[in-house]
Design brief:
The protein is mainly alpha-helical. It folds into 2 domains: 72 residues, no CATH class; 153 residues, no CATH class. Helices cover 43% and strands 10% of the residues. It is built from 13 helices and 10 strands. A hairpin with a 2-residue loop joins β5 and β6. The relative contact order is 0.14. The structure holds iron/sulfur cluster. The site of iron/sulfur cluster has 10 residues, from α5.
């Protein structure tokens, strides 16, 4: 039977539900497709918590009408009240699947987004995370993995991940850059730190402050930063590369920009591991990836690098 490629954290993943410190049930737009909209609104009068799009497509038919705090109105005491009443059929596809992603890249794969705090917790190992091949039952009949995305694959991603595992530091990124035929010549120096600070100010600072996180850059003095090398950082990068299909991500034509993006994430992680620890560190990492995965970061990073460095 065809096996499903996954990182070892997939099987163990479990949503923390009401124990989640920063639930995914709000603070971003949750799209609803037409099929979900019709299925859920027919369940009962208490199941129309949607706003229809002005220009509807089958994929983007409506979105969840968030409350005045920016959260899903069906979230009660950290739990989904309509799932409790009607079962899993009351969930939108996005709510059902997140943070899982099922796709075919030469074969079936399942990956987890680093934007969920439970996923980040699962990456905090003191050894490199391993791949495994799961039985296809993980996909079949599992309501959390019913939607499969078919995307063009590349073989290089897994060999880049192996390179990083063999060279678990900035050296690994330099070697990946060589494999990709690039010559960026990037050093983790003060200039790059100033660049990271401007990226932080552009992409994360306002959202951080408005959603209850501290402004980490306030605390950072370049001269006090010490290089941090541990498998937590490497595993976070591996999970991100696997999930985002690095180096192609969403921007096939700009591999150099994507590589600069990965260096930037490495730099941000260096800062986070210098200034935070415990739950605060985990939550901030999930926050950073939430913003990264929902912004034009990869599309803009190359130009910003050329402008600022
Ligand atoms: S962020 Fe992760 S752990 Fe928290 S509610 Fe969402 S899926 Fe569950």
């Amino acid at each position: 039977m065809e096996k499903v490629l996954a990182l070892e954290n997939f099987k163990a993943f479990k949503c923390k539900c009401n124990l989640c410190r920063h639930t995914c049930c709000g603070l971003w737009k949750i799209n609803v497709n037409k099929e979900d909209y019709l299925r859920i609104t027919s369940l009962g009068d208490d199941c129309n918590h949607f706003v229809c799009e002005e220009y509807q497509t089958p994929k983007r038919y409506a979105h969840i009408a968030l409350d005045e705090n920016g959260m899903c109105p069906k979230l009660k005491d950290g739990m989904c009240s309509i799932q409790q009443k009607y079962g899993i059929k009351a969930l939108t596809t996005i709510c059902m699947e997140y943070p899982r992603l099922v796709r075919y890249i030469r074969g079936p794969e399942v990956a987890l987004s680093t934007s969920c705090e439970a996923v980040v917790e699962g990456l905090m190992l003191d050894r490199p995370i391993a791949f495994e091949r799961l039985c296809k039952n993980v996909l079949l009949g599992n309501p959390y993995t019913k939607n499969q995305h078919f995307i063009n694959g590349n073989a290089i991603r897994l060999s880049l991940i192996d390179t990083l595992k063999e060279n678990p530091s900035i050296e690994g990124l330099h070697k990946m850059e060589e494999i990709l035929g690039l010559n960026i010549g990037l050093k983790l120096d003060k200039r790059f730190f100033i660049f990271i600070k401007s990226i932080y100010n552009e992409y994360f600072k306002n959202r951080a402050i408005h959603t209850g996180y501290i402004d980490i850059m306030d605390k950072v003095i370049y001269e006090n930063l010490v290089p941090v090398m541990n498998y937590n950082i490497i595993n976070i990068l591996i999970n991100h590369m696997f999930y985002m299909n690095f180096p192609y991500c969403n921007n096939n034509d700009h591999i150099e920009d994507n590589m600069i993006g990965l260096y930037t994430i490495y730099g941000l992680l260096q800062i986070l591991f210098n200034v935070l620890e415990g739950e605060e560190l985990i939550d901030y990492i999930a926050f950073i990836f939430r913003e990264l995965e929902h912004s034009a970061f990869y599309d803009r990073i190359g130009n910003l690098y050329k402008e600022l460095i």
